[in-house]
Amino acid sequence: AMLRLRLLTWDVKDTLLRLRQPVGQSYAAEARAQGLQVQPEALGRSFREVYGAQSRRFPNYGHGQGLSSRQWWLDVVKQSFRLSGVQDEAALTKLAEKLYRDYCSPHTWEVLPGAAETLSRCRQLGLRMGVVSNFDSRLEVILSRCNLRHHFEFVLTSEASGFAKPDGRIFEQALRLGGARPEQAAHIGDDYSRDYWAARAAGMHSFLLRAAGQGEGPEVPPEHVLPTLSHLLARIEK
Q1: Share in percent of the chain as helix, strand, coil (round to 5)
Q2: What is the pLDDT of residues 152-184, one digit of tens each?
Q3: Residue 91, burial from CB neighbour count under 10 angstroms (0-12, 13-18, 19+)
Q4: CATH 3.30.870.10 fits 21-107, yes or no
Q5: In terms of pTM, does the model score above 0.70?
Q6: Residue 45: phi, psi to the nearest 5?
Q7: Where are the domains of the chain?
Q8: Percent of the chain scored above 70 by pLDDT?
Q9: Which residues are within 8 A (CB) of 40 and not within 5 positions of it... i.e. 6 or more apart?
Q10: Chosen CATH of 7-16+112-237 out of 3.30.420.40, 3.40.50.1000, 1.10.10.10, 3.40.640.10
């Protein structure tokens, strides 16, 4: 039966947009531009460690703990370079501020194959569309610069919401913004627990973007799996 959908909500990172190169590479390139030699692999490892620790200590960009997301990110960048051997505080500040801006640039992000076409088709079907993303306030600008913002009635970030996926409250806010009941809405994302499971727990439909060969992870009914974004139309027009 046709899912009687009114609203689609979308994850962004690795669902609609992905980084053109790994974090370690872009950080190392910026360091080189400032005359510093740092190994991309070491930086990538440092970043993952620092990002993990910062996320545990200050969840959701330090929301409610007196941190701005900008400060949260500047700290992550500086600490990643410190862990990789850069000690010069002036250089660290300059690197952090430049990289914080760079991650708003369309040169840093690329639109996933099929994303723009799929979003256009969904709008042609008359579906309302919104973003639900564990991202900071830069997301509006990033989506605009990557020419995707116009597809969406709203962009709900975890920073603006105060809740991060898999917390069901961010989905409840999205449903209010989209004017839909849970059973009239579907969420699309690439993460099993934060996207697929969390949206279902909130009473929504959901689809998991999982490329062929990404078989690891919990079992999901095949009709809920999207090998590519282009598969979505067939799933919702059934």
Answers
A1: 50, 15, 35
A2: 999 999 999 999 999 999 999 999 999 999 999
A3: middle
A4: no
A5: yes
A6: -65, -45
A7: 7-16+112-237, 21-107
A8: 97
A9: 22, 24, 25, 27, 28
A10: 3.40.50.1000
Report the alpha-carbon distance of residue 136 to residue 70 in Å, rounded.
8
Predicted pLDDT at 70 = 97
Q: Which residue has the tokens 């610069």?
A: 145
Could you read off the pLDDT of 61-80 as tens digits, one per residue? 999 899 999 999 999 999 99
pLDDT of 237: 78
Is the separation of the CB atoms in 149 and 116 below 8 Å?
no
Backbone angles phi, psi at 130, to 5 degrees: -150, 165
Question: What's the one-letter identity of residue 193?
Answer: S
Is the dihedral angle over the CA atoms 156, 158, 161, 165 positive or is it negative? positive
Cα distance from N-terminal residue to C-terminal residue, the chain: 6
Q: Do domains 7-16+112-237 and 21-107 have the same CATH topology?
A: no
The 10s digit of each residue's pLDDT in 218-234 is 889 999 999 999 999 99
Q: Classify burial at 129, counting beta carbons within 10 Å of its beta carbon; exposed 0-12, middle 13-18, buried 19 or more.
A: middle
Task: Residue 61: name the closest of 6, 136, 7 by CA.
Answer: 136
Sheet with 225-226, edge to edge strand ranges: 154-157, 128-133, 7-10, 185-189, 205-209, 225-226
